[in-house]
Amino acid sequence: MDLGIKGRVAMVAAASKGLGKAAAAALVKEGCRVSICGRDRAALEAAKADLGGSVLAVPCDVTNPADLEDWFKATLAAFGQVDILVTNTGGPPAATFLELTEAQWESGVQSTLLNTVRMSRLVLPGMRERRWGRIVHITSLVAKLPAPLLTISSTLRAGLSALTKTMATEFGPDNVLVNALLPGHVLTDRQLHLAEVRSRKDGTTVEEYFEKSNAAIPLRRLGRPEEIGEVIAFLCSERASYLTGSSIQVDGGIIPATF
């Protein structure tokens, strides 16, 4: 299927590895010119080499407003405009409610919510002027299936789903489509870290944790990053032209029905 986005310019945050890199790879495959960012310069350059295609790599800490603006300006200088934005962040600290400090809550808001707001504010004026844009917020299944160990993430990811809907309503008349993607358990560094934390708390091994986790997923396996990336590419495409304001579950069926 031709997704109709060859030549479009995409910014993909935190794309040196994991889901961000998978999203960038899927967009490169569709012929997009892709600007990626990440904190680790070496990892970012390695990702650029892996991705091939027309890729700009800009070191950037997405929690730093000045870094985000520099990344945006570098993208405009290289490619002239931004048609697609994929927001993506690292997960906040994994801990139960009473274990969390106020500083950790404040850090979570900065790293998970406000950077998404800032990235969107940078690209939206140009998208509205050209009357074409796609924004996809990568969030998490905890937006619909809160987890006690992921207190901050569960709270903020649910908020991002609400933000997605309000943005879609506001910018729909400008043909700017905004959706959220809720990955389930996908084999990334973040998933390995959470497995280590949870297995320690439960007194089990990481292998036992994954065996139990897989048994709870209807497809009986973890997702692959590229499976998430391909859905993101579709949401950014011309083929998704009547899809906005949705929080799309890509979770192997683990989130219960919410009829």
UniProtKB/TrEMBL annotation:
SUPFAM superfamilies: NAD(P)-binding Rossmann-fold domains. InterPro entries: NAD(P)-bd_dom_sf, SDR, SDR_fam. Pfam families: adh_short_C2. Belongs to the short-chain dehydrogenases/reductases (SDR) family. Signal peptide: none annotated. This is Short-chain dehydrogenase.
